[in-house]
Amino acid sequence: MNSAVPSGLLLSARRAIAYSSIVLPSCRLAAVPSARILCPKTLNEIYDPTINTPHHDLNRKYSSVSSYDRPRSHILVDTMAPKEKVSFNLKTPKGTKDWSGSDALLRDRIFTTIASVFKRHGGMALDTPVFELREILAGKYGEDSKLIYDLQDQGGEICSLRYDLTVPFARWLAMNPDVRSMKRYHIAKVYRRDQPAVNKGRMREFYQCDFDIAGTFDPMVPDAEVLRIVAEVFEELGWDGRYTIKINHRKILDGVFEVCGVPQDKIRPISSAVDKLDKMPWADVRKEMVEDKGLDGAVADKIETYVMQKGARDLLEKLLKDETLTANASAKAGLDDMALLMEYLDAFGVLDKISFDMSLARGLDYYTGVIYEIVTEGSAPAVDSNATEVKTLQKSGKKEKSKKSTNLDEDDRSNDPTVGVGSVAAGGRYDNLVGMFLSKAQIPCVGVSFGVDRIFSITKARLEREKSADALRSSEVDVYVMAFGGKGFNGLLKERMDICKKLWSAGIKAEFSYKIKPKLPAQFKAAEQASVPFAVILGDDELAAGKVKIKELGLEEGHPEKEGVLVDLTSLIPEVKARLARKNSGTSTDSEAVAGLAQKLEGVDVKADTTAKTADAGI
Amino acid sequence: MNSAVPSGLLLSARRAIAYSSIVLPSCRLAAVPSARILCPKTLNEIYDPTINTPHHDLNRKYSSVSSYDRPRSHILVDTMAPKEKVSFNLKTPKGTKDWSGSDALLRDRIFTTIASVFKRHGGMALDTPVFELREILAGKYGEDSKLIYDLQDQGGEICSLRYDLTVPFARWLAMNPDVRSMKRYHIAKVYRRDQPAVNKGRMREFYQCDFDIAGTFDPMVPDAEVLRIVAEVFEELGWDGRYTIKINHRKILDGVFEVCGVPQDKIRPISSAVDKLDKMPWADVRKEMVEDKGLDGAVADKIETYVMQKGARDLLEKLLKDETLTANASAKAGLDDMALLMEYLDAFGVLDKISFDMSLARGLDYYTGVIYEIVTEGSAPAVDSNATEVKTLQKSGKKEKSKKSTNLDEDDRSNDPTVGVGSVAAGGRYDNLVGMFLSKAQIPCVGVSFGVDRIFSITKARLEREKSADALRSSEVDVYVMAFGGKGFNGLLKERMDICKKLWSAGIKAEFSYKIKPKLPAQFKAAEQASVPFAVILGDDELAAGKVKIKELGLEEGHPEKEGVLVDLTSLIPEVKARLARKNSGTSTDSEAVAGLAQKLEGVDVKADTTAKTADAGI
């Protein structure tokens, strides 16, 4: 075994944070014992990017790793292969997770609900590649661009993982000049190298469900329909009014800043500071403006008088009477838009869901008009990260986590009370983004993005608290085909296969034991564990008489069919179908299950931990 | 503007193959004019990997690029921004594409069909991250590992994009030791840096639809169910027998190689050579064995007598009588498995779809038992890439392409007659893969993966040839809400909004014009373009009388409702619903559309170009 010290030692040390001890037969990787204090940032600074040692050069092997250095969240595997010791970090990458069982099913139902609203409004599906040429994404996300995942240069094009679905949509519009208007929806994963909080749905890989309307239309009409879609989605998810659509307008904000005397070059940075008002008190935001961003204190104080205001039509009317403000062209245009929008929202029946919130600014650079963010009480404010009791909580939260949640990364913030679920949907108007790709194809757009992982987290937490989670099965099988017999019983495998074949051919979801001679109790247990509602039971005598038994599982004592009913083999399919239809007249077919989701979730209170604090990095 | 020559000039030259001229304000990139003859492979060889120049160092700018050097497939954009010239390559990365309109809808329907079969067999959904820790993928794919996409090291874990869905499933099983058996399905994109042929569905980013059964069961029972699933999927897609399930067994192959005298260390390389028999004549494969892989010519000739055989039960019986072969333990075990499998396939009614093909070897390392590949005549064999007429065809194909298909990459192989669609599904048994992650969790598995992009390409080509593509709409809107009026007509915008609100609340898919005062012909045109079946028409007089008109579009002259019917506003919803139900008793609701897909595709002949040649890199 070659034990030369790797040429890229600093590199190895940096990698050791992620790996503990890795030696693979086909592609040897090794790491020096990981340093206790070094954080990736620090190491990045001392890392020399010109040393790009290929992995197969790093074949120094360390057989022992201290228990401290080994990430607690990982299953570290040592398998003794005949020739060589093989060790893996058996985990998903930081900030990502697997979805399975009832979680996957619940999330799928959320997707289906959202997609059905999108289609109801004429949305057309668009699917784009998960990575884009890097220059497509460059210059679109402001400060957040540092969170973009890059693909390695392997001798072709330079690409990055998509950061959202909006920029790829704009790129698509620019590439398809025949399309001048479109309602498109896109449900797909996006990628951000942010600090994760897995249990709160703050992930590095997460789903967005986007609906956007592109095209030149009369003002605020598509904007109003997008907000109607927002309301329909949350109503159909059963949130029943327990959400708020915060709206504001970039032109109003810009007008306010101009009127207050913010220099032109400081408008975007000051806007970013204002956007933090859902996470910090005004005093902290003012401090950032004055101390970090060099704004005159008097100007900051003027800004306060505007941005702390919230309301609805009343606030709009008040602002329209503010002659200083309406003398500013940008503010006036924004206020006129807002007046029209509120009229249309009234016609669409969603005005009562709206909060006109002048502190809403949105981080992304590309918005140009109305902006919105949808929050629930789970998204929400209130814990001051500077308060000493919070620091104590954060610490104890960390300790508790390392004991309890072995599946979380060391620096996951799921148990940090200053981190909230954040907004569950957000969006706005972006009239210049398509033009950034193709100036002659200046197509104005407006849209919204739903953060499904967050919606899922809030929904699931509530379902668990209400113990209704067990109502969601992880598979949808309707019939378990079993066999039983006495002495000389051969298991009837091919007969079970034949019955399954007939059920499948009739579109009925069915399964059977893969054992040649399964025991009857084991078959019943398997059916019950998967909550399969019906058993079809084969026996030698019954088959000889051309009969088979159908038994509904879980019937109460005394039910006339408690012991099952014998039916002719020839009428098995219609008999099973009739019973399924009767049973499922509630919620069990695919489409009915989806329709029933709202009903099921209806009882779910979407209030979440009041200890949670909002942050909007996820959307 | 800094015009220093980039320090990594060779690197730039290499990048120039992908880019022509790229200068971004926020992240400047430039390239030297691309070399005409250099191919990436050649450049890779002279590229010094220790020079890893960051992009912002490559800021030399070329303002003119010769028309030859500019990739024909790209829209090259020059926007004159006030300060700086901005140029983009407006395209998706090589080997990837956008999906929209009726293509996206047709593909979605294929997904739905496949997923419904998976659920019918008790499949549970699993979703894993698009990237994995690199060491999870290492050592799993043999020679193909070079096709894995790596993420850039940005100071965290070292990750790669998933290459298939099988290894992530095995990783998940190893991480979830409580799960000892499972039927899981997974429909998601995978990534391979292969040479693309976009129009034939050979992509770098493509979907796989996987179904796998994990667990220790009686032999060949789950294997048989997987093949039953294969048959159900293609039957429901309407392929109606126009496909072949080629099967073989790794143990039979290994036994054959042993019996013929292949040294142990040459078994996998020789197996790889045999796997090319669907693309090359035996003479070429023999040459590879003898000249490239150093096999004794006499041994190769013995191999020929076995691997050129195809058949069904007859072939199995013949082999079972071959005493040299059955004396080999591996071959005997494989043949016994195969005999049992055929019995079960008979019970499942799929034996007639099977071809026992001794030349099938499959490229991936991890298979240990039965292996299979599903081909159609579009996958298929026959053009010898060495024949001179083929070389002419390839050349003329390239020329033709550059004129016609402006959306293809320069080196896309869509029009190369020696490239076929390849197999449309493939899989097999892999009993040791989970154990590679966790030796104590040795869970045997068997599964199959459907290549949806290829299935889509074959289906679409046929639909287009039969001009049935227009039957597939790109949105599913059922009602277009319009208004008309004479002098003083105000457009009835809010009234249209109100009607839409009512339709949406009733779950009806509806849209309206975003113009304040749209013209009636324009509204009809929009409805017709989107093939919306019904119009709801508002007029001042009718509204005053509490009435509204419903008009079915596209009715023939003389139909009693040709001019539409006036209904009470209060009964609009039930009146619309009744008409929709009548209209859709055919195929128009979501679930019915899916169910009707098979019917629609039934008439589709899946034979594809006989000029196509198979290759199995995609699955």
UniProtKB/TrEMBL annotation, chains A, B:
Pfam families: HGTP_anticodon, tRNA-synt_His. It is an enzyme of class 6 (ligase). Keywords: Aminoacyl-tRNA synthetase, ATP-binding, Cytoplasm, Ligase, Nucleotide-binding, Protein biosynthesis. Residues 391-420 are annotated as: Disordered. The keyword Ligase applies. It is found in: Cytoplasm. Its EC number is 6.1.1.21. It comes from the Eukaryota. Residues 95-455 form the Aminoacyl-transfer RNA synthetases class-II family profile domain. SUPFAM superfamilies: Class II aaRS ABD-related (SSF52954), Class II aaRS and biotin synthetases (SSF55681). GO terms for cellular component: cytosol; mitochondrion. One of its GO terms (biological process) is mitochondrial translation. Its main location: cytoplasm. GO terms for molecular function: ATP binding; histidine-tRNA ligase activity; RNA binding. InterPro entries: aa-tRNA-synth_II (IPR006195), aa-tRNA-synth_II/BPL/LPL (IPR045864), Anticodon-bd (IPR004154), Anticodon-bd_dom_sf (IPR036621), His-tRNA-ligase (IPR015807), HisRS-like_core (IPR041715), HisRS_anticodon (IPR033656). It catalyses: tRNA(His) + L-histidine + ATP = L-histidyl-tRNA(His) + AMP + diphosphate + H(+). CDD domains: HisRS-like_core, HisRS_anticodon. Catalyzes the aminoacylation of histidyl-tRNA in both the cytoplasm and the mitochondrion. Belongs to the class-II aminoacyl-tRNA synthetase family. This is Histidine--tRNA ligase, mitochondrial. It comes from Monascus purpureus. The gene is HTS1.
